Amino acid sequence: MNTNCNYAVGVDIGGSHVCSRVVDLAAPGGTEYPVVETPVDCGAGASAVLAAWTGNIRRAISASGLGQVRNVGLAFPGPFDYERGISLIQGVRKFDRLYGLDVTESLLARLEGAGVEECRYVNDAAAFALGECFCGAASGAGRVMALTLGTGFGSGFVAAGRLLTDAPEVPVHGWVYHLPFEGGIADDAFSTRWFCRRYRALTGREVTGVKEIADRAGTEKEARRLFDEYGRRLGEFILPVFDRFRGDVLVLGGNIARAYPLFGPAFEARLADEGRKIDIRMSALLDQAAMAGAASLFWEN
Fold it and tell me: What are 159's strand-pairing partners?
């Protein structure tokens, strides 16, 4: 039996790549073990995808110099059975050929000799929240609501270092993306899709992402208007969710959060309209937050 329980490999499963690094659970802000990234063809067969994942994990363990690591935590996109470690993704041209696969059994069989004995899973947005609480922007905070603003609208709720997914004060599964807003759902209202759609409505021009709009905000009034609208609407949506949770800190991450100087003033002004001031913090770990959060599934606090 591998008795090395003070470390865990944190793995961030993406559609085009997988990233992992070893985390010291006793001193997460101490030694920075290398991040290892491997490209993945998400449309490939199960064997090829698993080979990429396990090869990446082996390289991360090797890069740490520890020889063997007992625990592996994986931040995984949904739908996924996080308790049993079974992929439920289908019909989205991403990991379709892993549907119904027992990921734990498959990984352990391919990681023989690396010392791995246990795998745990968490939603990728929730992993971001855990990571920022474990050793990032919300380290030491009590009740933390974290949002990832980007291609999707992800969320996680953490209290006393533990992820809340079925508590009465949080949405079902701790997910806000499906909550109603403006006649639709929040995922449509606060993701990259909204920016592209709204920019086209205002200007008649197409853009591929938020960065293009942000780059034009210094000279284009329509771009500035877009960020003002986004900030006000985000404040309107967040406040009741944050209050129901009784949050202490709000952490923002994802690519859209990088434009906070553009939408933040309107966001904070909307909160001020309700007489509120929230402790808002930007992600400190950025792309490494999900890895830290996945590893922290083995942290005994």
Answer: 143, 162
Task: Report percent pLDDT > 70 for the chain.
Answer: 98
User: Tokens 């520890």 label which residue?
Assistant: 66
Q: Which domains does the chain have, with CATH numbers?
A: 7-127 (3.30.420.40), 139-283 (3.30.420.40)
pLDDT band at 43 (very low <50, low <70, confident <90, very high): confident
Give dist(CA 185, CA 231) in Å, integer. Answer: 17
Give mean pLDDT, residues 280-293: 96
The reported pTM is 0.93
Following CA atoms 277, 279, 282, 285 in sequence, which dihedral angle do they give, to the nearest 10 degrees? -170
What's residue 301's pLDDT?
Answer: 63
Cβ contact 300:294 at 8 Å: no
* Single-letter amino acid, residue 31: T
The pLDDT of residue 71 is above 60 = yes
